[in-house]
Fold this sequence. Notes:
Elements: E1 8-11, E2 16-22, E3 26-29, H1 33-41, E4 49-52, E5 74-75, E6 78-79, H2 83-94, E7 98-99, E8 102-103, H3 105-119, E9 122-124, E10 128-135, E11 138-147
Parallel strand pairs: 3-4, 4-9
Antiparallel strand pairs: 1-2, 2-11, 5-6, 7-8, 10-11
Helix pairs in contact: 1-3
Amino acid sequence: MIAWKHLRRTVISERVMILKLAGKDLIVMGAGIAGILAAIAAPRRGLDVLLVERNGSVGDLSTAGLCSPFIRFWLGNESFVSRIFKEVLYGLHRRGGLLRGSFDLEILKMIYLEKLKKAGVVLAFRSIPVKLISAGGFMKQISLLVPSVNLRSK
Length: 154
């Protein structure tokens, strides 16, 4: 999760602000299955990662949309999935979240979040990229439109 107090921020209104982040090796846009797997794999290769998600949770269609990512992924003895996906499957099985013909979406979210945290990935939920500054083909800074963390109910 983002440590909000350590970031440069510009408050646009009582409900919205722009955060400016720098110093990440890789920014992954979207916390669907592909984004999650990329964000987990990159730190294993020494990269510092920011995962930006417009919604408030991980998994996208596999959790919020209830579209099972667990379709047949093998042919004979050959598997077509990555090691990280196998780790997710094992986590679901170990916790009783891999059900016959289905899965427990809350356990799946929990496993995704645990793996991202263990990998050291910084997560930015409910965030919309509004500006990217690059130089020489590399990202130098990203500005995200996010809900204000100081919202007050009336």
